[in-house]
Amino acid sequence: MEAQTIIAKRIARELRPGMLVNLGIGIPTLVANYVPDGLNVYFQSENGLIGTGPIPEEGMMHPTLTDAGGRPVSALPGACTFDSAMSFGLIRGGHVDMTVLGGLQVDAKGLLANWMIPGKMVPGMGGAMDLVTGAKRVIIAMQHTAKGKPKILEKCSLPLTSVRPVDLIVTEMAVISFPEGRATLLETAPGVSVQQVIDATEARLAIPGTIPDMCL
Amino acid sequence: MEAQTIIAKRIARELRPGMLVNLGIGIPTLVANYVPDGLNVYFQSENGLIGTGPIPEEGMMHPTLTDAGGRPVSALPGACTFDSAMSFGLIRGGHVDMTVLGGLQVDAKGLLANWMIPGKMVPGMGGAMDLVTGAKRVIIAMQHTAKGKPKILEKCSLPLTSVRPVDLIVTEMAVISFPEGRATLLETAPGVSVQQVIDATEARLAIPGTIPDMCL
Amino acid sequence: MKTISVKEAAALIPDGASLMIGGFMGVGTPERLIDEIVRQGRRDLTVIANDTAAPGRGIGKLVTAGLVRKTIASHIGLNPETQQQMLAGKMEVDLVPQGTLIERIRAGGFGLGGILTPTGVGTVVEEGKRRIDVDGKTYLIEIALRADFALVNAFLADYRGNLYYALTARNFNPVIAMAADTVIVTADNVVPVGVIAPDHVVTPAALIDYLVTNA
Amino acid sequence: MKTISVKEAAALIPDGASLMIGGFMGVGTPERLIDEIVRQGRRDLTVIANDTAAPGRGIGKLVTAGLVRKTIASHIGLNPETQQQMLAGKMEVDLVPQGTLIERIRAGGFGLGGILTPTGVGTVVEEGKRRIDVDGKTYLIEIALRADFALVNAFLADYRGNLYYALTARNFNPVIAMAADTVIVTADNVVPVGVIAPDHVVTPAALIDYLVTNA
């Protein structure tokens, strides 16, 4: 299975009925493809939509119905639209039950850096700072390493997105959470050993007695 | 002419095309009866309506269309409705071009007291504080005296509504404004002498050379 | 979102709870829910609302029944019973300018700590509050307000809980629906999903905890 | 409200003006007005908007034409030209979290001096700003933002200027329509008064200064 698929499928298992969920761009978007049958979740697009549906078929697109990247989407029955103040009221006010975002770095306490590389890439934080600060649950979907280098570090070298720690990291190798503010290995991907995760992680990981395989 | 009619008719002459106007309860409400023919003004009701129309005929009332006192009103073509946050954004944000409010006392600098008499009458300020603070132009519609005692005083004895001075007072005797922060007699009602106004006013009035009659 | 009978809905509310209640002089107030709370009886409620309506109407019924220990409102002038209970020391009343009240509730629901408003500067409203200058103008810092429950009335609710409000019955309703731990809705009409166009939904279904059935 | 041609509308905007512009990645941006501003040419504009779209689209056209001296936005990642001009020192860019940006604009339009937000606390966003504690939680004081002009796009405008927005083209439009000295609107469709139901009007006509004709 591709790394992205592993990550997206595993995160989809965190969805619960009635949740309001915000998916970032990149790998997080893929989570929508693995919603369990019959589970009603609300996907928010921060440009002003709850009830985002799949890309409409050719000829059925409308210029006023798009995702946060400006690409055409559809709306499911029961969808609703709103202005950007409401959209971020939902986000900052704790009404978004879960957000899934990409990450550049996460530190041993769960602090995230995901919005800039000084001097190189300055896209702006968009909604990321509000999402990490305000969503009830923050899940980071990312590859475990970048060009062979760990992305889960003792301390982030890049500017932080928020001082609020994330709740969960899901990579193609492992699931990591932060009970009592400490990075803790929860699950490994099928075929990945605990030692392989430790080797690919700079942050010191707490390792409980039992580490089950990811359920995909 | 009745005192209320004089006041309402004189204030109606302050209306200009396209203005957004908020009328308080009591005498101010009567201003709507004297809008010059063909003049398009927008009346806001702070419970969430622009385009308030007259009381609908029997059998045409709807429980969800009311004024700020909860009484049935109608809506004119082009009316719009909104929540209370928007309603007070219009008020506080300076989008209301003119508000007409009742007054208990106004002082020599134009400071208004109109929301409580300690120990006697504590109705709450409702929207008055926001209106006086935020509207572009504040006009006070009130009787010149109460039980023979002046209401335009050197200094208010009642709690102030705002530290922002009002722009104009219209009574059944006179029109008073506050150029350079000083109560100034602009007009007298037909048949009322300057001396009568001075006698009925505690605040020292600046008296320009010419005092025309109110145009009604 | 769960559907629930009006009896069950009222039973969710314990003595001492804080309630944000929609409505402006009773217009847009969840009247059936108010009636049931009065029927079941409660003690020491805190009511946060624009006003206390009038005796026999909306929030006025809670006041008459003596269920309210504290009211945070902008106007109580049309309910003499509220004023009597306040002057008799039976009810604490915190009077807040209407624009400040709705912004404080909005801040509570939108994850803001509060707002800076010019309203009330230099008046008795300022007492006990922090002032702050921005670009040479003075503002009061007015802090966010939340409640245990929001009691919301809508004109239309769809099966999932998407809400549409009619005319001046909108008022505080969509704002309080953001600002409470538990949101209970009564609707004048319950309609199938999709009847309310996406652009016309004012309160998204995801905010609603309980929709009271019309049975 | 006055009706005006797109040429006249663009001519209202002087060199050095600050413009709030509706749209999210170009969706809901008054494209005809942008095209005319580019055609007429302007210097040293300040643009306040969610993003700078992409080259050839919406605000991206102003960037490509070199008309923008300063941008206040939450995201410029999809317009490499904005990033190039920023890194080359040709354009000043102030990056603001999206939720903070929209609340600052709203505050400007709603007569608030600013808002207290937890977003950005402890990050580079905090630099130069006041912090304040409320009930033990730390917030940044983010101050109100206004502009000389709001350039708004609506799906429907009636003859008086009441506006209705479609789907995700709403975004920043109704908020900026409150926050500028002069509000100029382009509408996809101009319709008779009354076509937009009172509950569906999002921006009241009284806020609009100029409606661009479709001629």
Polypeptide structure, described:
The complex is a heterotetramer, with 2 copies of chain A (216 residues) and 2 copies of chain C (215 residues). Chain A is of the alpha/beta class and 216 residues long. Chain A has one domain (3-199): Glutaconate Coenzyme A-transferase. Chain A has helices at 3-12, 27-30, 84-92, 128-134, 194-199; strands at residues 20-23, 42-45, 49-53, 74-81, 98-101, 105-107, 112-113, 138-141, 145-146, 149-150, 152-153, 168-170, 174-177, 184-188. The longest helix of chain A is centred in the first third of the chain and has 10 residues, at 3-12. Chain A starts with a helix and ends in a 17-residue tail after the last helix. The mean pLDDT of chain A is 96. Helices cover 22% and strands 30% of the residues of chain C. In chain C, the strands form 2 sheets. In chain C, strands 1, 2, 3, 4, 5, 9, 10, 11 and 12 form a 9-stranded mixed sheet that branches. Chain C has a 3-stranded antiparallel sheet with strand order 6-8-7. Chain C has a single domain (2-212), classed as 3-Layer(aba) Sandwich (Glutaconate Coenzyme A-transferase). In chain C, strand 9 and strand 10 form a beta hairpin. The mean pLDDT of chain C is 97. Chains in contact: A-C, A-D, B-C, B-D, C-D. The A-D interface holds A 45-49, 62-66, 68-70, 75, 81-85, 87-88, 91-92, 121-130, 133-134, 159-163 and D 24-28, 50-51, 53-54, 57, 73-78, 83, 86-87, 93, 95, 97-100, 102-103, 106, 117-125, 155, 165-175, 202. Strand 6 (114-117) of chain C pairs antiparallel with strand 6 (114-117) of chain D.
